[in-house]
Amino acid sequence: MSGNMVRVPMKEQDPVVRGRNFEEVPFGYSGDEAKAEAARCLRCKKPLCVDGCPVNVKIPEFIGLIADGDFAAAARKIKETNALPAICGRVCPQEEQCERRCILGKKGDPVAIGNLERFAADWEREKGTVELPAKKPSNGKKIAVVGSGPAGLTCAGELVKEGFDVTIFEALHEAGGVLVYGIPEFRLPKEIVRQEINYLEALGVKIVKNFVVGRTATVDDLFNEEGFDAVFVGSGAGLPSFMRIRGENSIGVYSANEYLTRSNLMKAYVDSPSTPIMKGRRVITVGGGNVAMDSARTALRLGAEKSMVVYRRGKTEMPARTAEIHHAEEEGIEFHLLCNPVEIIADSKGVVTGVKCVRMDLGEPDASGRRRPVAVKGSEFVLDCEVVIIAIGNSPNPLIPETTSGLNISEKHGTIVADEADGRTSKKFVYAGGDIVTGAATVILAMGAGKNAAASIMADLSGD
After folding, report:
1. Is the pTM of this model over 0.90?
2. May I ask the CATH architecture of the domain 242-392?
3. Is the backbone of residue 397 left (phi > 0), alpha (psi -120 to 50) or beta?
4. Euclidean distance between CA atoms 135 and 91, whole angstroms
5. Alpha-carbon torsion (424, 428, 429, 431), positive or negative
6. In 3D, which of 83, 85, 91 has the Cα closest to residue 156?
7. pLDDT by residue (tens digit) across 111-154?
8. Are 187 and 114 in contact (CB under 8 A)?
9. At what angle do helices 59-67 and 71-79 cross, to 10 degrees?
10. What sign has the CA pseudo-torsion 172, 173, 179, 184?
11. Which CATH number fits domain 15-127: 3.40.50.720, 1.10.1060.10, 3.20.20.70, 3.30.830.10?
12. Who has the most CB within 10 Å: 41, 160, 235, 306?
């Protein structure tokens, strides 16, 4: 337990090379690197890092096992509370959660908890030492889970271990939700997602694909005709938001949702002939979050000579993870900050040729606590491009809320009203969690919601 103030860096692909391929950017730790990083942990008696984790991973315990060289035990320890560690180790914002609470972070670098979680999960998978935990005998209760994203997968994983008969209903042709359609290969390889899902199926979770709840069958149908005892709704926030500016319907304008789905899920990134995608020599992505970074970096890899990000605030206000912004900058993404599109320009055939922007100043803070951007009069200018990707957020698809009787919906955002601590909704034995409740958020928060809802389902059905 050295308490060394500097973390062990994780080696990465060269930015010039990786900007033209879809292979994962960081290489991961070697065993010796993981042990050296784990040795920095102080093994606090009151580990604040655990409080910062939405699924309460036993962080000092698994890190201690890595430091001792028992990598298989470390992976098993993580899986006691987290069914998707290889995913969380890659895409969770540890810097805002567990690592932010690390005592070492007060004077130096916090322990690289995310890197170590990834290492343990990868080691277990690559060495073929994955073990299934003991399951309780069947209790005869059937649970339907709507959506196979992080909330649904976590809820299902918790329940199946407790003896419940769990079926996930997925609208798309591949399970994984945002993990497969939203996050690019270079940040989260899809083979890892598939193997995490295979683990849940091996536990006994059933997955029904191409099943749109609200259309193929309603939530009420799942109760009345299919005999389910409870339903967890984790259908996410897949309805894209647009700017509603002139020219937004031009040829070459994508929502980030469609653009990333075409590339990730439909394999346009490998030049799938069945999935066309406009590549463009110059591509503009509008927005400043992780989805915007994913879109701009994907455009570069699809062949753009210039991939640009246009964001109406400054760099310090960008909601994207610092690491994602850093990677984008390294790869040569061009940032136009304090700028806002006011019109998308098209030629006589309706094809995009550019974006008219206006420069912005930051005024007083708005409801989010960030300073409100204010347009600078007479500052309009045009950025030439062939493709525009709108990455300014998503909201829940209204299909399930509109087709489920007795379910309270928020008027402002169209989200399902549920207790974020336990997932209970206004409809008895219907639970909800993740982006369908909170709006677009993080993978780990959705997982925490799925875990909390599973606990509520267990409690509510235990007396029947």
Report:
1. yes
2. 3-Layer(bba) Sandwich (3.50)
3. beta
4. 28
5. negative
6. 83
7. 999 999 999 999 999 998 888 888 899 999 999 999 999 999 99
8. no
9. 170
10. negative
11. 1.10.1060.10
12. 235
- In terms of phi and psi (left: phi > 0; alpha: psi -120 to 50; beta: otherwise), the region of 329 is alpha
Instruction: Write the pLDDT tens digit of every residue in 143-166.
Output: 999 999 999 999 999 999 999 999
Spell out the domain ranges in the chain: 15-127, 142-238+395-461, 242-392
The two tokens of residue 115 are 């890197």
Report residue 239 CA to chain centroid gap. 15
Q: Which helix (H) or strand (E) holds 85?
A: helix 85-91
Q: What size, in residues, is the chain?
A: 464
Structure tokens at 291: 């989805």
Residue 17 pLDDT level (bands cut at 50, 70, 90) = very high
pLDDT at 28 over 50: yes
Look up residue 190 and give its amino acid: K
Is the confidence at residue 1, as pLDDT, over 50?
no
Show the tokens assigned to 363.
């005024």
- Reading phi first (left if > 0) and then psi (alpha if -120 to 50, else beta), residue 337 is in beta
Answer yes or no: are the C-beta atoms of 93 and 319 closer than 8 Å. Answer: no
Q: HSE (CB half, 13 Å, CA atoms) of 164?
A: 29
Backbone φ and ψ of 339, nearest 5°? -135, 150
Cβ–Cβ < 8 Å for 211, 124: no
**75: how many CB neighbours lie within 10 A of its CB?**
26
Q: Which of 63, 172, 158 lies closest to 112, judged by CA? A: 63
